[in-house]
Amino acid sequence: MMHIDILTLFPDMFAPLRESIVGRAVRNGICELNVKNIRDYTGPKHGLTDDKLYGGGVGMVMKPEPLFEAIADLKKKPNARIIITSPAGRVFDQQAAEELSHSEQLIFICGHYEGIDQRVEDALATDVFSIGDFVLTGGELPAMVMADSIIRLLPGALGHDKSSEEESFSEGLLEYPQYTRPPEFNGMTVPEVLQGGNHEAIRRWRREQSLARTYERRPELLSNAVLTTEDMRQLAALKAESRGESKVWLALVHYPVYNKKNTIINTSTTNLDIHDIARAVATFGLSGYYIVQPAPAQRELIGTLLKHWQYGFGAHYNPDRHEALGKIGLVESIAAAKTEIAKITGQPPKIIATSAKASPDMRGYAELRQEIWQSNTPYLLMFGTGWGLTDETIAEADCVLRPVYGAGSYNHLSVRSAVSIILDRLFGEGGAKFAQKF
């Protein structure tokens, strides 16, 4: 059984902990909760609990003697966690709650006035926690919040241990929306998927809603969340939809493409292709950049890199690179990219293939630029890796853009160079005004 002791100058404030789940957990012997008045440790005449600041200043500081005496009296377990509530502490979160829920004993010291004498923290405290970047009158409310969060994680506290596993932050994400009867109220209906009984469809819907809610309300949580490649795909679609930029996307295809023997292969993804093409896409104002890669190992590698730049340390370390790589989506096939664009725009995209090989009926840059300018249709501009897109892929496209020609006969540009040149021809030199059109 967990033992929780709370040291406070205002014990009557903790009446709420006698109610609801916490109160029931205490009554059922799942945990023991004691609220102690710090003044009980100031001697028989209940002396001072605070005094003036050394060095001058406004306000009072809580004295160390009563707190040292209280900890000596209350500490029953050698591994007890002694927690000070303070705005100068690290932010309390679900991970901290889960960690503390495994402790045998917790002792909370509720700060007040200008704070607690530093020697209490130095000699006694194992943890200093804040519940957010704002100032409260004292540490009582934070102690209540933390105690509630911890106690409800104890086995048996909720009546069903899986209840705590399916709540907000259990997987690093906010919880999906919840509904109950009636199925229709004031013209608002429960989503049809939740009424159909298809458990896999319900699971997918809940995951999608959880991702969307986290992206909209608490995107910083995504940096530590466990995300699948399907999650990354959905997040890329959410970002593209929210940006409301042009209706042109770019796809870098790793399969199906040719090798130099004209065999259909799956190529490996390169870090330079990821970064440089993303920067070109951002520079010329396209809506997004899909990496088409079906190989599981490659997708895992790309997903790890994208998470670092889109939500992790890289997003804060280099905001410009984060902005560019934030446009990337990872999909398994060209068809998946087309489906994503159709979801975002409400209509399937027109496919533009690129090739280094000249053929009849290829489109010129000026002609295609004018068409995109005048059209409300979304477009997907496809580039092949290796030795280029397969003949079948090109045949299925709505049009093929003519190759990039230089002054000589050599025509073997890297895909990164070809992307930059083609984007400049379609959207550059006045392309800023051009891109604003769609």
TrEMBL record:
Residues 248-428 form the tRNA (guanine-N(1)-)-methyltransferase C-terminal domain. The keyword S-adenosyl-L-methionine applies. InterPro entries: Alpha/beta_knot_MTases, RNA_MeTrfase_C_dom, tRNA_m1G_MeTrfase_C_sf, tRNA_m1G_MeTrfase_TrmD, tRNA_m1G_MTases_N, tRNA_MeTrfase_TRMD/TRM10. It is found in: Cytoplasm. Its EC number is 2.1.1.228. Belongs to the RNA methyltransferase TrmD family. Keywords: Cytoplasm, Methyltransferase, S-adenosyl-L-methionine, Transferase, tRNA processing. The keyword Kinase does not apply. Its main location: cytoplasm. This is tRNA (guanine-N(1)-)-methyltransferase. S-adenosyl-L-methionine binds at residues 111, 131-136. GO terms for molecular function: tRNA (guanine(37)-N1)-methyltransferase activity. It comes from the Bacteria. Pfam families: Methyltrn_RNA_4 (PF09936), tRNA_m1G_MT (PF01746). Homodimer. It catalyses: guanosine(37) in tRNA + S-adenosyl-L-methionine = N(1)-methylguanosine(37) in tRNA + S-adenosyl-L-homocysteine + H(+). GO terms for cellular component: cytosol. NCBIfam families: PRK00026.1 (NF000648), trmD (TIGR00088). Residues 2-223 form the tRNA methyltransferase TRMD/TRM10-type domain. Specifically methylates guanosine-37 in various tRNAs. It is an enzyme of class 2 (transferase). One of its GO terms (biological process) is tRNA N1-guanine methylation.
